[in-house]
Design brief:
The structure holds 3 protein chains of 3 kinds. Chain A is of the alpha/beta class. Helices cover about 35% and strands about 25% of the residues of chain A. Chain A is built from 10 helices and 13 strands. A 5-stranded mixed β-sheet of chain A has the order 5-1-6-13-7. Chain A has a 5-stranded mixed β-sheet with strand order 10-9-11-8-12, with helices on both faces. By secondary structure, chain B is mainly α. Chain B has a domain of about 160 residues: MetI-like (MetI-like fold, Orthogonal Bundle). Chain B contains 11 helices and no strands. The longest helix of chain C has 16 residues. By secondary structure, chain C is α/β, with parallel strands linked by helices. Classes of the chains: A alpha/beta, B mainly alpha, C alpha/beta. Chains B and C meet through helix 8 and helix 9 of B and helix 2, strand 6, helix 3 and helix 5 of C.
Chain lengths: ~270, ~230, ~250
Amino acid sequence: MKFPLLKSLAVGAVALFAAGSVSAETLRVGMECTYAPFNYRTADGELAGYDVDVAKGVAEIIGADLEFVCQQWDGMIPALLANKFDLIVASMSITDTRKEKIDFSGPYRDSVGRLIGKADADWKLFDDNGAPIAENFNGLRVGLERASTYENWFNAKLPGAEIVLYDGSEPLYLDLQNGRVDMIMTNPMKAQLRFLSKEAGNKFGFVSPAISEVEFFGIGVGIGLRQGQDELRERLSAAIRELINNGSLKEYALKIFPFQIHNDEWGKG
Amino acid sequence: MSFDLSLITESIPKMLAGIGITFQLMFLSAVLGLILAVILLLMRISGKWYLSWPAQVHIYIFRGTPILVQIFIIYYGLPQFEFIRDSVFWPILREPFGCAVLALTLNTGAYVSEILRGGVLGVDRGVLEAGSALGLSARQKFIYLTTPIATRLALPAYSNDFISLMKATSLASTITLLDMTGIARTIVAQTFAPYEVFISLAIIYMILTWIIQKSFGRIEKYLSRYVNP
Amino acid sequence: MTNPTSDALIQMINVDKFFGEFQALTNINLEVKRGEKIVICGPSGSGKSTLIRCINRLEEHSAGRIIIDGKELTDQVKDIDAVRREVGMVFQSFNLFPHMTIVKNLMLAQQLVRKIPKAEAHKTAMHFLERVKIPEQANKYPVQLSGGQQQRVAIARALCMKPEIILFDEPTSALDPEMINEVLEVMTDLAKEGMTMICVTHEMGFARSVADRVIFMDAGEIVEEAEPEIFFNSPKSARTKAFLSQILTH
């Protein structure tokens, strides 16, 4: 009597196992999980955001399963190298320094920075062409995230500014409010959603145009992966191009912003 | 994984550029903390509840909570109050350095005051009675008998706390200060080489600990000259 | 409050002392004249140490009056200080200041309490170290001295303050037997010079040869009080007899 039952259980187990192995690979994706609106947890604890959508879109195209790993920003690349996960989909800009350690797919989001300061102050920091006036930055305290591309830009272009480095973006907003820094430079999309549109940020506003210097900020944001996986990198890049061309990327962006945040040129490959 | 030795030789001088901040944090907090500790101690042994009670509350709070949390409360929490931003203390609290020194001082003051109390309680009662019998006042007994004897008794524990304080200065890097740890974290974020950089950093701290230990060893030997002449 | 007319240096009138519920002294009445030497003996826990510790206010008496050289001990700090300037004390466990050299031990209170200049304090200190026959130990630390030497230093330290009275609280009990005599010798010399002394001790030979009066205490009371000749040869109380037979056969 017992044998048929055991047998059917065994068969079921085998079937389950087989089903699980149909989609060949599982890719572990590292992200901060606190970087709204790009990667963050919703009130239900679900991961959401532009990075998350891109990761899911790419995975669907290349036929992989996803597993998300939350990782602090300044340990992101070491964790990838230590094989804690396989991909970085965390709004990481593609830069030469980073490329010495890791590889990137093609870009899936553009990389710009904007300064935020007191809205009612007359800063006169940029000329009519949108170029910074270096001497007007002398002695200004500017808050930046540690090891962000903005830091390199400031060091090269505006050495007179006093740079204060933070871990994460929430402390940036706090210290701007508290008056410890005169302005901050950060991702404008995120700042708009997390700070400027909130009550805490209502005395503050953008005090610069969008700054997009490929030399410093890179061509944009890509998916990071360990070096020596050219085949995987190519599959990721192709998948991103497909997402651009079929309008998915634009759709992801419009969930959050009133504009797309990629360059259609990238779709031509 | 590969271990980049040249990165160590490159990053150590960079980190040493932050040793000044580390030393300033350490010595300033140690001196202010010691003053606070003595005040707390005098409050505790005053025998007056309205003095000893606040001292005990302070000690309980600062020994009972993580120093990192204390730093965050002082740095991020206090400025949320308008009156603090308007107060005369704001020029100090506005600076991460001021906040770090304040947090370290309040913290080490609580610990050291307990260490000193241990020393004071360890002073032989008979010695103090002899002082009384000779007509010394309470104040004279405290200055000439209790303080020197308690200092020797408390020194080994105090040297441990000093080393803890030295290591705790690294937490200042979490509130934007570029002490040695702050610089190290920035280098790591730029080079993505945590092992090389943090191991170098650890070595620097270890050398500092060794120097502090040796120095206190000498002081201890000097203060113990009457125990092992 | 007026002092009772008396030529006594120390007067204890109806003194009681309680430690919580425990009564350590019961209705103590004692007069000590200038130059008198008193030995107090009795079983341990009989209150003898407590009695002399009340005289210089190391213990606070609970009731009755204590008058030293016309000054009554009250809660007033200045009264206590005045009395302590007159009364020296030598402890069972020496209680030298461990972190100071011998000579510094002798100078500290002179300088702080009597405001004597350093040079003079040093001179006085050396004088009394000579008296107790250990001037060569002046610059050593207490821990470097034998018990007997330390106790002699403690006596010299008390003498430096030029007290009217010296209280001895079992000064030889913590000493090895071979060191007891050197301390007793110093005490005997002091007695010969006319110092007023109250000694809590079990050294009955010393009591016999030096004391003007011997006091026997038990359970916090003065049981018997007599000249040594009478005290040792014909004690009145049964408790005294029992105590003496115990201590003398040892």
